[in-house]
Amino acid sequence: MTGRRQDGRAQLDRPVPGRWERRDEAAGTPARWLPANAHRVPPQGRRVFHGVIFDTYQWPQQLYDGSIATFEMLRRHDTVITIGLTDDGRVVTVDEEQPSGIVRHGGVSAGGVEPTDASVLDAAKRETREETGYAFRNWRLLEVRQPETKIEWFVHVFVATGVIDVAEQHLDAGERISVHLMPYDEYVAQAHYSHRQALLRFVDVDQLRAWVGEGERVTLD
Q1: Residue 152 maps to a domain
Q2: pTM of the full predicted structure?
Q3: In terms of residue numbers, what domain contains 201?
Q4: Looking at CB atoms within 10 Å, which of 104, 116, 137, 175 has the fewest?
Q5: pLDDT at 11
């Protein structure tokens, strides 16, 4: 489906040059779509530190004057985020508390990709089910962003519609999450800047749901 907001500011479909990557078990990365301008650890990068969240890679890099310098980059597991819509057009939001003191209100399901996830879509489905209890029929990738070019870490944001089931949550020991349904316009008004910018190209929740359509679409090209 293509179209424009009533003010003509943006088309609903915004093709982004990119590529589909198969799952790489050696690197610990799932099947995923990445934009063409993604910054990656180069093949010659050698892991020099393995942390709980971040791994550090270094490699020799030739400079413009012919000299060699050590370049460095971090890598961590990708993040998946799901903006889930109920059949009456509300957003499935969460209030979250973690032992470290992190408290979030009015967010949506989000979590890290795990080595057992075959794809980022599988990870999004799993995280959404665990944190909110919701399962959805239709999924479409809204955006992929790299928060920091010195970190090989990509955030994949999906929109999900067509509620299949609502079950009990299955939370980690370090999570306290309560689920709330929020009117779509209220969610957009207070959403993360990147999410808000991506959603503002839709006139309303009905247009967003029509854009998601039926089935699963996991690329932006």
Answers
A1: yes
A2: 0.90
A3: 77-217
A4: 116
A5: 61
Q: Residue 94 class from Cβ within 10 Å (0-12 exposed, 13-18 middle, 19+ buried)? A: buried
Q: Which residues of the chain have pLDDT under 70?
A: 1-12
Assess if residue 18 is contained within a domain.
no
- pLDDT the model gives residue 28: 76
Q: How many domains would you assign to the chain? A: 2
Task: Provide the CA 20 distance to its chain's centre, in angstroms.
Answer: 15
CA atoms of 125 and 121, how far apart (whole Å): 6
Q: What is the DSSP string of 140-167?
A: EEEEEE-S-TTEE--EEEEEEEEEEEE-
* HSE-CB of 174 using CA atoms within 13 angstroms: 6
Both 82 and 157 in a single domain? yes
Residue 189 sits in a domain of what CATH number? 3.90.79.10
One-letter amino acid of 182: M
Q: What is the pLDDT of residue 37?
A: 93
- In the DSSP assignment, the letter for residue 29 is B
Could you tell me which residues are beta bridge partners of residue 18?
35
Shared domain for 46 and 99, answered yes or no, is no
Q: What is the pLDDT of residue 6?
A: 44
Structure tokens that stand for 20 in this block: 């589909």
Closest C-alpha to 98, from 179, 10, 198, 171:
171
219 and 15 Cβ atoms separated by less than 8 Å = no
pLDDT tens digits for range 124-138: 999 999 999 999 999
Q: Backbone dihedral region of 213: left (phi > 0), alpha (psi from -120 to 50 degrees) or beta?
A: left
